[in-house]
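New here. Your pick:
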Amino acid sequence: MEGHWYDAAAGPLVRPYAMTGGRTKPGPHGVRFDLIALVVVDRSGPDAADEALLGPEHRTLLGLCRAQTQSVAELAADADLPVGVVRVLLGDLLEGGHVKVSRPVPPAQLPDERILREVIEGLRAL
């Protein structure tokens, strides 16, 4: 049992609020990360020495993003952290220049119903 700080059934004993320093909102500007926002490591960002100053959860997220571009939801699942915690940690990483976040492209707007009816009528006329 020595060296075990977690219970396999319960998971880590570190509470989410401890990982975020009690914060529930990312960054000082209240940035909100959509679940499908894509996160990638900023190659021109801080160097490895700066990364060493980050907490273990921050470094885990950076490692996952370094392997491939990931969505916020994927990061939460792969890091086995609550989405709220991941959003706060990503806010820290974004503010520190470690990552870039691209906003999801909004779904395509449906064409006007009138246009669809004209297309159907045109097809029927053939």
